[in-house]
Amino acid sequence: MTIRPNPSVEDAELGRMLIAELKREGFHVVPLDKADYLFACAAEGSDPTLSPATASSAVVFHNRGIRLCLYSNPQTHPGRLNLAWQGYIAAGPNTSAEGEMALIRTLLGYFGRDQHGPVNL
Question: Is 103 part of a structural domain of the chain?
């Protein structure tokens, strides 16, 4: 997985959290030319803000959901970029970074199965 050049604050943080969770779950995150599959993630909704309430300026997400897509890698598989799996989870308004991580973990729990919409955490 790579993060696109000049990502939004929210997409960069979402990518960082997704990579951390994929590694925790036992996925092997490797360079593009060695990957069997490519993950794409997007936070869908409005822009994030920085919270002045903490010294670390934690990102507060104002998105409506997280979309994950898994594609075959055309560099290691014959053919073109093909969608292998897609999942979406509704995040709701003003989701904290901790809540966002819980949503990522929940969505990855549906890996390989359809998931589109809200779930109970």
Answer: yes
Q: Is 66 exposed, middle or buried (0-12, 13-18, 19+ CB in 10 A)?
A: buried
Query: Model-level pTM?
Result: 0.69
Provide the domain count of the chain.
Answer: 1
How far is Cα 52 from Cα 39, in angstroms, rounded to an integer?
32
pLDDT tens per residue across all 121 residues of the chain: 555 567 777 778 888 888 888 889 888 888 888 888 888 887 776 444 444 444 444 555 555 678 888 888 888 888 888 888 888 887 766 667 777 788 888 888 877 776 666 555 5
Q: List the 83-90 sheet strands across, edge first.
A: 37-45, 63-72, 83-90, 115-117
Q: How far apart are CA 10 and CA 97, in angstroms?
A: 10
2 in any annotated domain = no
Supply the range of the domain harboring residue 60: 9-117
Indicate the residue type of 5. P
